[in-house]
């Protein structure tokens, strides 16, 4: 029973030390974000037209509605060609 | 005639033991949960299948020379598979919501109380005759409360390999049960008014913040908790590959083909630990019970922490997102969103809940590191 | 000067042995068949290349520390590569046609007579001086009749590793020759009228049937033939991942990237067994001869079984699909379709032939299990 | 020669036992399909609009003719826009 | 209290050594170069990260049981990872430009003078106290002049594993610096008129030439330099898979998923050799210095060889493409193109420069084989 | 110093032997290309419509402008249908 008590105390200490550590660690991360990252963000803002976000946006675009700008261009061109071929009355 | 006898003696029917039959049924049960109930199928399908294979008499899947033997010792005993999964998860994780609202880290921290309370509970179970969990065992069980599969497998493989099967089953089962376990606790601990709290839109997070963040996390882990660096390090490597923008092909492979290949083997290898002698005992019941407790306590701690933060600060957070602090990405965040919508159909909490959700992943990796540092070896 | 001598002594020219030259030509021959004749190129390209590499003097590809040494011992000696290929093949296999017309399983069973008759033949060859096949050797050779590459490699690596190279060459060569070997046999054993038989459209097979089928196959293998569970188990795992619908990303990886990676290494590793001392002997001639016999007997048995079934039942099957029972998926089914079209241009047998075709895969895995159980160790 | 005969007998037994076993095994599978699977199929028929077959059908659709519904929609919309812009006379 | 002490003793802060801190900064420096300056990011991101991980105190990444230990010994010490990368690079390489203009092989040969001159220089450094390079060390360092990452890693792992980290850092850094190192040398050694030389359009290369070419290269390597067959062989296997047209799925996997997976591990494993005791010494400075010399000499040799060829033949080559002979595919070819455009805005040298560029890959693999044959063991 | 000299000589020989070998090897490759490959190219020229280059061309086509022939066909058909539905006056 004595050893059980001892294990209990050990487990209790572990619980306390663990939670303190977790909070301290993630708390430091909060400070890191607020001090370091926010400053970095101000100093190096994203370029207005991000070179990287462009292809991403394109990908999303394709993924979300399946229509690429090229298709739209092709449609425009097809309509134009059709118009020319058939003599548009507009 | 002799030939026929040899053939008969080589059949499963002539060699079955009861434990093997039961464990195969457990494997089938896992397959059923995965396929029919959609319980974390990516891991539970190979794991359930591995449980069946490892219990086949005569075949020797998990003996020297058997496929699952190689898979387990090369990938799980060494920790390689969970670490590669963690790298892939890192490459899938967007820390934007967390960086935009760093306070949510405290929610992720609070939810880890599920782990440490369960550790206490597992030791307490020793008072009941039949349970004899060492501190190592108790720690490996407690990590179930972290709601993070690879973390649980990694820690269990280091601290209590003979409990690995039961711990993985419990961890993944409860992660799948998040939509059932969490909502009642969330509703019980919050008022209608609290659940209706709308949160301010998150600020834009720049590319450089996302690139530096994983490096900062790694640096702090190196300083304060080297024992957690295998997990946190591989996670941060994946995340850095994702965000740095110059190694997209590596990031894509880490998120797709590599994680898929490793998941198949990880599942099979974990399943190979579901043998009768290691699973069919009262300790497994204890693990399953403690796992449920751990999840519930973690959920409650996250919600209560959010309420406490609202008391201390004028900027209000919806306490429902505290429940997402247990991790179980992205399910817990979706649950927070869903319960929030019930109270206020115009209140979309998903993005806000992603902050504590990914904080919970870091939190449980840190907790695993603490346990490794304190009770390892 | 000494330097130049060292350099000269390190050249291939100064160290070649005749056997190595011949085996390199064999490797080039395999590459030619693969590239120019499209003979099972996915395996024969890496295998032919591996045969060249392993026979390079001085380089030591297959000695301790050499690349092919690692590949062979890590992947083939352990059985891991053929089993992973089998998982991928399982993920590619649709059992719908078989479930819709279960009678075709008997065609797949009959075609395995090619295996067992060849086993008898291999033993008979011992009467000729120069041949000394043990029962293990004979079994490994006989499995060529199963027309299934990974099964043959798996069994040979367990029963007769020193014959592995020749067996793999024979198995893949004859699989590629199916369109040449089978049609004359099929035409000789059937009448014009039989070849014109049209078969009823297959019924719709539901999702649950396809999900339960691999589990049922595994269960029966566990009960009656545990020795076959490595092959059948990994095959069923792949098939379950395919059909269960909740792990599509794992199934896709198993069918594509994983099987591609393993195929490269499997080919190289098998090629590394094509060394002069193991290949350039009269036994290889015996293996090549027996392989051709095995294919022919398997084809004939399948066709004759179909004719027998037509005698016993009113529901007629086109006996051409019996030839597809040797497996060689999907080539044998295509051959059945093609020969059928010659007789009746409106008769598409492809889907009907897929039944015996996949039954043949199961059949030869079962046959391999029987051989392992009876002559293994 | 005696040992050869013995091996022959062994090989013959192997052949017989093997073929019997293969037929028995695959025969049991026939029974399994006819008894278990067919019953399951009756009890749990596929839903009329299968949730799984839908994306598959979609994929096939894309694969077989390369045109997604979105493209068709885009074309419709392009045609409409063109009509509006150019004042349709129809 | 004791617990807190244990926790403190387990922190990185309590265990750091100065060398580890410096090596972590080196790792961060590599990450900075990779991410901010786009220096060969595919390898330098995992390598820089590996350098950080391996220097974490307590964590033991590179000790027995640590992740990087397994990665290094399974993949780099055996040579498997560089060889697989080489296979992938082979599958990405189009020899069309080289076959169309075979004379460019001499440019690729000349550029290897960078390697052998550096070998001489490394030995010369021994005259300075503090340097004690063996012939093995000097050879491993000299290969930096080959401007080919996997070749350098492969050779260093065989001849001088303790220098591997520094050699890899130097090789990849200078490969990234090609656009800065080469143009001044190219301009200094050529006249404006030479830089304006326009070259005839390349002839069409047929499929059969591209299929036979890798086999011919392999055959010659087997005859004359078996020690180079691991590198050349895997490269030719990749190239054959690319060109033969019957194993496109294997070729695609070798170029994408497989090379990506291996690149992540190769980088981590190489980074694990960046430990303080192996990197922070005067030899590393020597290696970095010699590497720069090797690149410069290689570039100059290529350009001068082209000028010599113009003297000897009426068919003129633009000497700028000689600089591409160092390999560093495809960067060096792009540099040649860019410098050429400065002199003549209508002169596109890119395709012409691809000839010496891929010749340089073969050339440095051959050089590596010579060094292995002469100073290996 | 003597051993240094010896190493120097060794390194010099290595340099010489190495460069000679590299030139000899790649020179032989030049001969191989000029003799063997060129002859092979004349004997087995690429078929005019290469079976392999076709799908490649198609892939490139998709990759370069994102529009498959099917899409073009669909556009044509959409335009036709629109014309029929709206009674084309052309
Ligand atoms: Na967690
Ligand atoms: Na078969
Ligand atoms: Na080079």
What are the salient characteristics of this protein?
heterohexamer; A: 90 residues; 81% helix; B: 377 residues; mainly alpha; 20 helices; 72% helix; binds sodium ion
Question: How is the secondary structure organized here?
Answer:
The complex is a heterohexamer, with three copies of chain A (90 residues) and three copies of chain B (377 residues).
Chain A: H1 2-43, H2 53-65, H3 69-86
Chain B: H1 2-9, H2 18-36, H3 41-54, H4 67-76, H5 80-92, H6 96-100, H7 104-111, H8 113-125, H9 135-142, H10 149-159, H11 164-189, H12 192-195, H13 207-224, H14 229-244, H15 248-255, H16 257-271, H17 276-279, H18 282-312, H19 331-343, H20 350-375
The structure holds sodium ion (3 copies).
Could you explain how this protein is built, in words?
- The complex is a heterohexamer, with 3 copies of chain A (90 residues) and 3 copies of chain B (377 residues).
- With 90 residues, chain A is mainly α.
- Chain A contains 3 helices and no strands.
- The longest helix of chain A is centred in the N-terminal third of the chain and has 42 residues.
- In chain A, 22% of the residues are buried.
- Chain B is mainly α and 377 residues long.
- In chain B, 72% of the residues lie in helices and 0% in strands.
- The longest helix of chain B has 31 residues.
- The site of one sodium ion has 9 residues of chain C, from helix 20.
The ordered H/E elements of chain B are HHHHHHHHHHHHHHHHHHHH
| Helix coverage percent of chain A | over 70%
Q: Name the beta content range of chain B.
A: under 5%
Task: Indicate the structural class of chain B.
Answer: mainly alpha
Low-confidence stretches of chain B: none
Distance between the termini of chain A: 97 Å
Low-confidence spans of chain A: pLDDT under 50, at least 5 residues?
50-72
